[in-house]
Specification:
By secondary structure, the protein is mainly alpha-helical. The chain is built from nine helices and four strands, in the order αββαααααβααβα. Among the domains are: 45 residues, no CATH class; 93 residues, no CATH class. The strands form two sheets. Strands 1-2 form a two-stranded antiparallel ribbon. A two-stranded antiparallel ribbon has the order 3-4.
Length: 199
Amino acid sequence: MRIFTKEQKERNNRKRRKKMKDVKFCPECNKNKIWITSQKCRNCYYLSKLGKRHNWGHKISAKLKGKPKSEEHRLKVINFITGRPRLDMKGKNHPNWKGGKTKLREKIRKSIQYKQWRTSVFTRDEYVCIWCKSKKDIEADHIISFAEIIEKLKFEQGVNDLYRKAMQYLLLWDINNGRTLCKECHKKTNNYPEGFKMV
């Protein structure tokens, strides 16, 4: 990094201030301001080189407006906007696939089925902790703990293809096995530490 003396800084500032004053209008269009050293503005420069003005800042979508699009393109746009899952980018087909590192617990808890179960438990209990009636930091708790259910599933049906079996196991998705608790009440339950078992 270059270090300037006080005199050099003052000289540079004087030059900068002078340059800021030396602004004129473009001689060709009389619209755009340009530096005194420039001969024409960007638009006039492009007009002289290309024979047309350059559309600065115009979106590509504005240029494509009104042009017919293929059916395939239309379906891609609809799928992108509506957020439908792209099955061709799932699992092993996804470029970020690292050989199935995600834990079973995490996969189940991030599934749509789990979110629906959680919402239905909250709706039934009216988004209120059933013990202290708090509406703050509520969590859906399994009465028979999540870890116990998975262990029971492993014992009954084996370890192979456990995620698919868990998604079909009724006890895991039974709303009567769920209750709404706030974070503090959830910590008082017997099965709270077991929820963090490595499943």
